[in-house]
């Protein structure tokens, strides 16, 4: 949206205007926070990020979604990204950092952001830091969702889904009444192809190889907080709040 296109607020329902106004008042005195969430698949980042986002009035930047949005909006960077994707190439680090740079200028990111799924490599972390430095800001905290591979395997490979409703079960933590069958419809449950042991193993290998060095990189800057991600979600939330209030 260009600055010339004014939005007509008269058509927006009062309750939405009030909600946004109250949110901005509540957010006004929140400290700015620029956070990176790092952790392997199944470590609970997805559970905690909406809680952190609401508590601290941050915007959530999932790089995959942002790339798709930039491509759909045909922004100059989006057009470039689409060219790369159409050729089956990876989108360059510079492009992704550029898209993050664009995104964090939005009003919803005024108080800061949560970056999820980026940076995955030390080179990406360096480019991100460079871009933030130009804006006179930096990463405040890197939340490391540390968890043992064996626990993850149990968490993830136990997940089963009823595809039409999205109801999820877990063989150990939330089993269906009848094994392999949805409680409500009696239809068979499926496992997402990402949730199999073999796929998990390769994703974990990639995570350890590429992303653990990122944790070391930020640890040297003194901004990493190691969380006990194997704990129940409520306890992890408490840990996160402690870390972010210090």
UniProtKB/TrEMBL annotation:
GO molecular function, one term: AMP kinase activity
Keywords, in A-Z order: Kinase, Nucleotide-binding, Transferase
Membrane-spanning residues: none
Domain Adenylate kinase active site lid, residue spans: 159-194
Top EC class, one word: transferase
Alphabetical list of Pfam families matching this protein: ADK, ADK_lid
PROSITE patterns reported in the protein's UniProt record: ADENYLATE_KINASE
GO (cellular component) term, any one: cytoplasm
PANTHER family on file: NUCLEOTIDE KINASE (PTHR23359)
Descriptive protein name: adenylate kinase
Natural source organism: Nelumbo nucifera
């Amino acid at each position: 949206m260009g600055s010339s296109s004014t939005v007509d607020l008269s058509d927006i329902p009062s309750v939405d205007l009030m909600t946004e106004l109250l949110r901005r008042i509540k957010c006004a005195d929140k400290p700015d926070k620029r956070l990176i969430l790092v952790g392997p698949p199944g470590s609970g980042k997805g559970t905690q990020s909406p809680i952190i986002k609401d508590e601290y009035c941050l915007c959530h930047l999932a790089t995959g979604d942002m790339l798709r949005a930039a491509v759909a909006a045909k922004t100059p960077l989006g057009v470039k990204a689409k060219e790369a994707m159409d050729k089956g190439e990876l989108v360059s680090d510079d492009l992704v950092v550029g898209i993050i740079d664009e995104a964090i200028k939005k009003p919803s990111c005024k108080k800061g952001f949560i970056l999820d799924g980026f940076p995955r490599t030390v080179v990406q972390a360096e480019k991100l830091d460079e871009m933030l430095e130009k804006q006179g800001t930096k990463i405040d905290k890197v939340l490391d969702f540390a968890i043992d591979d064996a626990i993850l395997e149990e968490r993830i490979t136990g997940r089963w889904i009823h595809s039409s409703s999205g109801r999820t079960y877990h063989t150990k933590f939330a089993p269906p009444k009848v094994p392999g069958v949805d409680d409500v419809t009696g239809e068979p449950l499926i496992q997402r192809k990402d949730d199999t042991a073999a796929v998990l193993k390769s994703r974990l290998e990639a995570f350890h190889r590429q992303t653990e060095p990122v944790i070391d990189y930020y640890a040297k800057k003194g901004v990493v907080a190691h969380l006990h991600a194997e704990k129940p979600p409520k306890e992890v939330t408490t840990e996160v709040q402690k870390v972010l209030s210090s």
